[in-house]
Amino acid sequence: MGAVNDFLIFLAEGFTGLFNAAGDQFASFITGMIPMLICLILTIKAVIQLIGEERVYGFMKKCTKYAVLRYTLIPFLCTFFLCNPMAYTFGVFVEEDYKPAFYDAVVSMMHPIVGLFPHANSSELFVWLGISAGYEALGKNSSELAIRFLIVGLIVCLIKGIVTEKLYLIMKKRNEAKLAA
Amino acid sequence: MSEFKSVKASHGGNGWGGPLIITPTAEKPYVLSVTLGGISPVALRIAELTGAEAHDQFKDPIETDQACAVVIDCAGVARCGTYPKMGLKTLNIKPGSPSGPLAQFITEDLFASDVNPDCIVLADAADVPAEPVKAEKAHEETTKENVHAKIAEGRAELASKESNGFMDVVSKIGTGVGRVISIIYQAARDTVNDVIRNIIPFMAFVSVLIGIINYTGFANVLAGVLTPLAGSLPGMLAIGMFCSIPFLSPLICPGAIIASVLSVLVGNQIANGTIPANFALPGFFAVNCQVGSDFAPVGMTLMEAKPETIEIGYPAFLFGKLITTPIQIVLAYVLSFGL
After folding, report:
1. Dihedral of the CA atoms B301, B93, B255, B231 (nearest 10)?
2. Tens of pLDDT along B251-283?
């Protein structure tokens, strides 16, 4: 009888212990991250509203002509000003043949941007938070990580844009040849 | 073209929204299925009852303005808000209430979730709203406009009464400050909503996950599996290439949930010291190679790309990953030194 009782107590302790550990984790998220996130996101949202995205549109439209800007600066500005998923709507101003590549560049910007600007894709924040929280746990500052993530992200967007653009044009040509035959 | 019938679609047991009355017309004869793994049975059921045509929007995208309804399987981020925003009746076969960045567009008259084929029934005559509804709405809008016009008139009157120099300046500053404050306050409200709807639920999910992993000793098992994979360049390339397989990537992509969970696991191992800190940077890219695979047709629709463009562009995008995945991981690895 005593052994069974001990076992049950052991189980119950394990059960509540697990959820205590989870609760501690949750509390540390709420107190450690939420206040800063709210203030940061609030400020950026207000700044975007005050600037007005229409004002940057004219400049952005001009940039879409150049491949280097089309797959780096423009995806960044789209995600910054319009956020996920409305960022894609700017693709309306991109030439038809570049749209798949532009999609690739914009979607690849969705996560590298959140290290510095979490408002851009707040629903998928944990792709960044998971690893960066572990990094911070070592006592390191994650700002440098965030900056490098964004820089690598910009280079990756450019590479992806160019590769997908070329692939699309090759596949389109092949398709047209098939239709003609 | 009166052979089309109307159906009533209600939400399922764990669902939200609806019931929606779906009536195909000659201009809108399609039920779009934006679901992975072929046309959803829900779309087929609607097609069978109404006489509309079920259409696989992933395989062969068409203009969305030909659709009378859209069936989606969205985990709650992007797709579920995109179609309601376009004003399309949207049926989500997954459960869930309005969420994601476009949650404000997800309304009961446009959206129902956890829909299964049994939720679709032929509509009674009483259920089918006749045209007057539209007229009513138009009426409402005009009255709203009237109200706005009246307010504007009132303001104009006020302004004309006090149009001396000093008061002008004061009132201009007043309106300016008022505008800025209202924008900031609105931003605050949006932000808090966003955090409650999208960020805190995920934090709770991750907390339980971390609690289980750390408390049960599962962390040690995971370290054994993850360290060789996420703690070395070849291992990361292996994860990345696996997540980039064109037929697999759309399946593991929705809501970035798998990427987030992998990120949390890798982060946990970095905190424990089993994975070196500089692997954080290539880690971001390795766990998220599948990014955007499920959303590509919808994203390109938002760009108003032609259906032909999407048809070729989607596979081009998926196969492009096979080339760019190793490049991005190696690049991130090279740039990670010194972290």
Report:
1. -120
2. 888 778 888 989 999 998 899 888 999 999 999
Taking only the tens place, the pLDDT of each residue in A101-149 is 999 999 999 999 999 999 999 888 999 999 999 999 999 999 999 999 9
Q: Among the options B68, B74, B243, B289, which is catalytic? A: B74
Q: How far apart are CA B120 and CA B151, in angstroms?
A: 46
- Positive or negative: CA dihedral B57, B58, B60, B65: positive
Picking from A11, A113, A123, A178 by the largest number of B CB atoms within 10 A of its own CB, the best residue to mutate is A123
Does B68 participate in catalysis according to the annotation? no
The candidate with the shortest Cα–Cα distance to A100, out of B77, B235, B309, B14, is B309
3-state SS, residue B111:
strand
Which SS3 state, helix, strand or coil, does residue B305 take?
coil
Nearest to A29 among B203, B215, B323 (CB): B203
| DSSP codes of every residue in B192-260 | HHHIIIIIHHHHHHHHHHHHHHHHSSHHHHHHHHHHHHHTSHHHHHHHHHHHT-TTTHHHH-GGGHHHH
Q: What ipTM was reported for this prediction?
A: 0.87
For B22-34, b/e burial (b = at least 16 CB within 10 A) is bbbeeebbbbbbb
Spatial separation of the C-alpha atoms in residues B55 and B49, rounded to whole Å: 15
The vertex-A56 CA angle with A50 and A61, nearest 5°, equals 160
Q: If you count them, how many residues does chain A have?
A: 181
Q: Coil, helix or strand for B71?
A: strand
Give residue A40's identity as a one-letter amino acid code: L
Residue in chain B nearest A131 by alpha carbon: B267
Burial of A36 (0-12, 13-18, 19+ CB in 10 A): exposed
CB A158 within 8 A of CB A72: yes
Instruction: Indicate the SS3 state at residue B34.
Output: strand
